[in-house]
Amino acid sequence: MADENGNIYDAPRLLMVCRRGAQWGLPRPDELMPLPEESELFLLPGRLAVGLDPETGLVECLPQLAVAAFAAPGHTFSAHPAYKRAEDAPLLPLFAYGAVGFYRGRFYVCARRVDEDPRQQFCHIPRARIEQNARRLLREHPKNRLIRHILNNCVLRYDCPAARNFALGRFEAPLPSSRACNARCVGCISAQDKDSPVAVTPQHRLAFTPTPEEIVGVMRLHESRETRQPVYSFGQGCEGDPLTNTDLLVESVRLFRKAGGRGTVNCNTNASKPEAVARLAQAGLTSLRVSCNSAREDVYNRYYRPADYTLSDVRASMKTARAHGVFIALNLLFFPGVTDTEEELEALAAMIGENGVSMVQWRNLNIDPEWYFALLHDGGTAGDAALPSMGLALFMKRLKKLCPWLRYGYFNPWLGDRADIAAPAPGEWSMPL
Q1: Confidence of residue 379 (pLDDT cuts 50, 70, 90)
Q2: Which of 13, 27, 291, 382 is positioned for an S-S bond with 299, CB 3.0–4.6 A?
Q3: Domain with 299 in it: what CATH number?
Q4: pTM of the shown model
Q5: Which of 275, 278, 423 is nearest to 357 (CA)?
Q6: Does residue 301 sit in the same domain as residue 240?
Q7: What is the tally of structural domains in the chain?
């Protein structure tokens, strides 16, 4: 719990209470871990802290404000914080909110580490080094607008982890390319409808469309500095969906590969255009990361609000990618109490098995938990409060049993120029009995 100035206090006599969907309960023994390094703590305005009195078995509401954690990359929350919300409580900004408690001098969260890759750990890298690298690259490449955007906006203004890695010449380089999008995601971090209750987005959308030469310039620069395992990714938080600008992507990948460009070329996308995926694959795309909050159409539509495509188009895009030898990762926006249910497990396993998905990246959905749950529950069965939550750990275990070839992680993996794919081709898998 915390006061209005952000000072955090413990209530030793009360037990930590967490929330999964509409269900409140104690943390499961297998989901508590020390708060990871480089995580953050958030004050939750208009929301009072609660705790369980072990003597009475009753939940007690405290006069102090609730506190939540935002976990460092590579970790996925399995529960949200429980609290009593005031009627005039403001909508929470677009971050993930994890349940956090305190015990013997340490903070603990309901989460698990899903990826050991250190690519977004910066605690031992001086900020001055990153900024010096960014300014040097700006001086060396004054005419490339995309390099300027990545360094001026994404590094120096927003502290984007992918952009910082580009400045350092390591791991994965971002390739923002599209100003437009054909979905209106409720939790979009770069653009919102005029009538959206989200007052501020974490970052602004790309304000220009780069040329193929500018994109290839970023790729070649990164390849010259990250010489071991370079990854290049279209589809960043500061843009719309890259497949809305298919010709640009195809020409960029074609030029890069034609000049001998090596490494993993990846596209983060809503996968709405199967024909675009086919063209990109033929140009030299290595991997496709498909963003998805649910394999159930009602849940999917309520969050993504697609403009000119359906979830069937997403499945068709994955089938197309697998047929062309493209590695498919599902960027699963995990939400405790909605994702980790029996209904979602069956739907998700079918989506993965029937469409040749090789990997699940476990990312938390960045959104006010109560807002999202109400969005699903209002007028439909998708957010039915009665659906029991099995928890992240058990959900992951059971999904792996149904789809044993699956890789789990958080980041886009380096796969070389072309991936070795263990996932079954479409038509080769059936749901185990």
Answers
A1: very low
A2: 382
A3: 3.20.20.70
A4: 0.95
A5: 423
A6: yes
A7: 2
